[in-house]
Amino acid sequence: KKFGKIINPVFISCDPARDTVEQLARYISDFHPRMVGLTGDYDSVKSACKAYRVYFSTPPSADPMGDYLVDHSIFFYLMDPEGKFVEAFGRSVDAQEVGNKVEGFIQKWKETAGSIQVADARERVAKDGRPKVDKETLKPLDKAP
């Protein structure tokens, strides 16, 4: 609330077999109204995890109706307005410390770059051509929102 729409939370699934677009939409609605949920096929998720140095272990041919465990590291990342990595936060960092670091980065960015524009990951995702769901009905959309 303090910084408005310059911060855009994004959740990336580590379980592509069970985390369908519809299920992710339902899940992220419990966290933040502007959160974006991303998933894909196994290789895409594996590639995203590798790029962010996230460990995960999910069977590549997992049956979504079956019983299996997903093991993964737990991080969230702060990226700058240009999409570049700033800092990673693990389970040992409390909310106060995260808030202080984010606030410090925002101040520093404003001092050096001048301003920060509204972050609209939903708009970017809507334009990428991948399947989408209606936020209210959780039904697949024919066209991007």
Tell me the total number of β-strands: 8
Low-confidence stretches: none
Give the topology string: H per helix, E per strand. EHEHEEEEHHEE
Q: What structural class do the secondary elements suggest?
A: alpha+beta
Report the biggest beta sheet as strand number plus sense, adding barrel if it closes. Answer: 2 strands, parallel
What's the shape? Answer: globular
Strand content: 15-25%
Q: What percent of residues adopt helix (DSSP H or I)? A: 25-40%
Radius of gyration: 17 Å
User: Number of helical segments?
Assistant: 4
Assembly state of the chains shown = single chain
Across the major sheet, the strand order is: 1-2
| pLDDT averaged residue by residue | 82
Separation, N- and C-terminal Cα atoms:
24 Å
Structural description of this entry:
The chain is of the alpha+beta class and about 140 residues long. It is built from four helices and eight strands, in the order βαβαββββααββ. The protein has helices at about 20-30, 40-50, 95-115, 120-125; strands spanning about 10, 35-40, 55, 70, 75-80, 85-90, 130-135, 140. It has a two-stranded parallel sheet. Strand 5 (about 75-80) and strand 6 form a beta hairpin. The radius of gyration is 17 Å and the shape is globular.
